[in-house]
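Dear support,

I submitted the protein below through the web form. The confirmation email said the job was done, but the results page showed an empty box. After a refresh the structure appeared. I'm attaching both so you can tell me whether what I see now is the final result or a partial one.
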Amino acid sequence: MATGVTTRSSERRHTQQLRALRAVASLELAKGLAVLLAGFGVLSLIHKDVWGVADSLLYLFHIDPDRHYARIFLDWADEVTDTKLLTIAIVAMFYSMLRFVEAYGLWRERAWAEWLALVSGALYVPFELWDLIHKPTWVRAGILFVNLLVVAYMAYLRTGDRRRANSHFPA
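What the results page shows now:
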């Protein structure tokens, strides 16, 4: 009887972990898709008047081109070359591939993907914290919170696996 209860409890825990892993995998997939689409958007600017596109975006969003950040944006657009655009698109492609591989591994419950999610998520924390301290918004706080949840959960899974593996081999 006790083993039946233990088995059901273990199955329930595994189902909950699988749901959480798949939620993180879905998040990583969404990030990969967003960056891939942005990369294609950048590619579409090759051989185009980037300054004109930037000016049109400011007009579309009703942003005064004489504002400080609008000027910086237009100055940047004026200095962009096709080589820079291609470089940005290639980096976006590799980043999205990394996110897709991570999502696949998490969906399939692979330990290497949990490590990848832990390390890559932890790398962002100092930057997100710095950004939140210097420009606090609810969106930045939410992004940091979600990232910390993912990092903490991946650390929990990795240390939990190590404890379970060690319990099978008495010292």
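Response: this is the final, complete result; the empty box was a page-load delay. Residues 109-171 form one domain.
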